Amino acid sequence: MLNKHFTIMQILTAVYNFFRPRIAGMVIAILFFAVVITSIVYTSWNSVDQIPQNPMDQSNIKGIGMLIFTDLVVPFEILSIVLLSTLMGAIYMAKGDGTQ
Question: Does residue 2 fall inside a structural domain?
Answer without folding.
Answer: no
